[in-house]
Design a protein that fits this description.
The protein has helices spanning about 60-70, 90-105, 125-140, 160-170, and strands at about 45-50, 55-60, 70-75, 85-90, 115-120, 145-150, 175-185, 190-195. It is of the alpha/beta class and about 200 residues long. The protein has two domains: about 35-105, Ubiquitin-like (UB roll) (Roll); about 115-195, Translation Initiation Factor IF3 (2-Layer Sandwich). The protein has a four-stranded mixed sheet. Strands 5-6-8-7 form a four-stranded mixed sheet, with helices on one face. A hairpin with a 2-residue loop joins strand 7 and strand 8.
């Protein structure tokens, strides 16, 4: 027999033994550093920073110095002995840290491999067109993989393909350096160029 409708079921505490559903509310992200009273299990710390006398202090004294300045005691290095702490406004510390990380990320431009494909009978116009693309790629800091694809019997023109690639590299020597000379791999003759380092 089916139980009573939901709205007629008695209210009150859930019977014991039932599985509790996991909490799916807002997750509070913990701070990535230990600060103030969250720093536990240490007797002394090494203080660094601009606004304090640097050296080794008892933990309680270091915490008191931070409180007197209205700042936070922030653990910088937990692996050192004793641990290294800085007295600073924690929110400002996090802001500066994120700013530095963004700057580093911006400088680390992603290097991509760009491909330039030729046929053994590529004409001068097409060669110049593709050369301009390669020049742009190298100037942007990308690596260039140039190759000549030999279809069917055109493999007999492999010397022509090698000359084409070497000419291609020569025209780009102001922005690129040959990383590996033309090499035949199956039906393709491949050459790699990398950006020339700026002086």
């Amino acid at each position: 027999m089916a139980g009573p409708p939901f709205f007629n079921r008695p209210s009150g505490p859930r019977p014991s033994g039932g599985a509790r559903r996991p909490f799916r509310g807002r997750v509070i992200k913990e701070d990535p550093h230990r600060i103030n009273n969250r720093i536990t299990g240490v007797n002394e710390v090494r203080l660094v920073g601009d606004n304090v006398e640097q050296g080794i202090f008892p933990f309680s004294q270091a915490l008191r110095i931070a409180e007197e300045q209205g700042l936070d005691l922030v653990e910088i290095s937990a692996n050192a002995t004793p641990i290294i702490c800085r007295i600073i406004e924690y929110k400002k510390f996090l802001y500066d840290l994120k700013k530095k990380q963004k700057e580093i990320k911006a400088k680390q431009a992603t290097v991509e491999m760009k491909e330039i494909r030729f046929g053994p009978n590529t004409d001068e116009h097409d060669l110049n067109f593709k050369m301009n693309h390669a020049r742009k790629f190298l100037q942007e800091g990308h690596k260039v993989k140039a190759f000549v694809f030999f279809r069917g019997r055109t493999i007999v023109f492999k010397e022509r393909g090698e000359i084409l690639l070497l000419k291609f590299a020569q025209e780009l020597e102001d922005v690129g350096v040959v990383e590996s000379m033309p090499k035949l791999e199956g039906k393709r003759m491949i050459m790699f160029l990398i950006p020339k380092k700026k002086k």
